[in-house]
Amino acid sequence: MKKVKVGLVQMSCTKDKQENLDKAIAKVREAAAKGAQIVCLQELFTSLYFCDVEDYDNFDLAEAIPGPSTDALQVVAKELGVVIIASLFEKRAEGLYHNTTAVLDADGSYLGKYRKMHIPDDPAFYEKFYFTPGDLGYKVFETKFAKIGILICWDQWYPEASRITALMGADIMFYPTAIGWATDQDEETNQDQYNAWQTIQRSHAVANGVPVVSVNRVGFEQDGAMKFWGGSFATNAQGKLLYLGSHDHEETEVVELDLSESDFFRKHWPFLRDRRIDSYQPITKRYIDGD
User: Fold this and answer.
1) Which of 75, 96, 105, 226 would bridge 222 by S-S if both were Cys, CB 3.0 to 4.6 A apart?
2) 3-284 homologous superfamily
3) Which of 7, 168, 178 shows the shortest CA–CA distance to 85?
């Protein structure tokens, strides 16, 4: 049996970029002390979630990848012997920016990056103002401990993205994310939204026979108008919850995943084997209406 211990870092952020980075590093150390081999940080962990407004000054938060944050995290990864999944605001060139996750291996080496493919544009989530859609395609990374697939937040709603990532050989799918409730919503709406978010990601584990790890930020932002709902979780390859974070508190949790279960579940629920790939051409259409 191949088992891997993954660390989930669910934290709140401030306006101070260095303070957030230092806090994240401290929590990576905490996860490693608990036995984590792969540590996933939440989406855009070095800042508040700035996409609630369209403000040109926020572009100053972006940095090169590799760059200052990955340099600092590479030192920590090598020191602790852990893989670090780090979601950052990437400045690719003058006027060209991405929502990007870097992967650092346990020896401190930089393995590469994944650029978020699906970009939302909703009230308080104005990401299209800031981020160019990813152009690297879907990615998997061969780390010391497992072959991991990375998708980012809005990607989590798309079974096509998780399917492709699984077909590329991912042993585990990680979702750094930043999603929350408007604080003027009623509790029933809040619960419905959270349940939908968790359900769609657990379904990716079931459909693909791959463990899923989703790490979300927590805390009030946007002058109290948004409560990021935390609720980070990890599932096995059948979608069974192995860990569920709170909606209110920072947490650093380590979960052991048995990667050999993927073979077991894929044998008994052979969804990959039974796919009718010869019939899927219409999926590339925007809508099937004859136009």
Assistant:
1) 226
2) Carbon-nitrogen hydrolase (3.60.110.10)
3) 7
